[in-house]
Specification:
The protein is an alpha/beta fold. It has helices at 3-6, 10-18, 25-33, 37-48, 52-64, 84-97, 152-161, and strands spanning 72-76, 102-108, 134-140, 166-170. A 4-stranded parallel beta sheet has the order 1-4-2-3, sandwiched between helices.
């Protein structure tokens, strides 16, 4: 059975494969420096991509970024359903009240059908999403062990270049494999 047999909409899958992704790296860098949400999101999508041409572009992007300020990195981990997203939302409200900024990378389990996020922690953070001081990006773990995604460090670099005061990485629910995230935190 191939992927198109499993996909919820095989006709859409064919169209997705035909889409060309052309990235304007200097424009993305400028957008990141100006903390433009669309530019940050596109840059993260670029570094998450497995396409060879996108990997080359992501190397160019990452080498072009100027990290002016390094935000404090925090890892939030715990058992599934323990309240990680609720805690992160409360922390974000405190950051907003203090006039600081926060970027949140929420790691979700991976759909075996689409390869995307299953739970979408972002949906549980609704009240903070309207703040310009907060950026939330859910990402599928892509079955990468260690609690984060394989590109977490690159995403953190993008968020440092955007100048966020705090960068929070919320791990997928813990089991026995969350051993790599301690290297990413302060």
């Amino acid at each position: 059975m191939n992927l198109s047999d499993k996909h919820i909409n095989p006709q859409l899958l064919g169209k997705i494969k035909q889409i060309s992704h052309a990235y304007d790296i200097p424009a993305l860098v400028k957008g990141i420096e100006n903390r433009d949400r669309n530019s940050i999101a596109q840059a993260i999508t670029l570094v998450e991509s497995n396409r060879a041409e996108d990997q080359e572009a992501s190397i160019e992007l990452l080498s072009s970024l100027q990290i002016k300020k390094q935000g404090f990195r925090i890892i939030i981990t715990g058992a599934p359903g323990v309240g990680k997203s609720t805690f992160v939302s409360a922390l974000a409200r405190k950051v907003i009240n203090e006039g600081s900024s926060m970027a949140i990378l929420a790691t979700d389990p991976t759909s075996q059908i689409t390869g995307g996020s299953i739970l979408g922690d972002k949906t549980r953070m609704g009240e903070i999403l309207s703040s310009d001081q907060i950026f939330v990006r859910p990402s599928a773990s892509s079955n990468h062990l260690g609690g984060a995604t394989k590109n977490s460090l690159e995403k953190i670099d993008i968020l440092h270049a955007a100048g966020f005061d705090y960068i929070v990485l919320e791990t997928v629910g813990v089991g026995q494999s969350e051993f790599s995230t301690y290297k990413l935190s302060d």
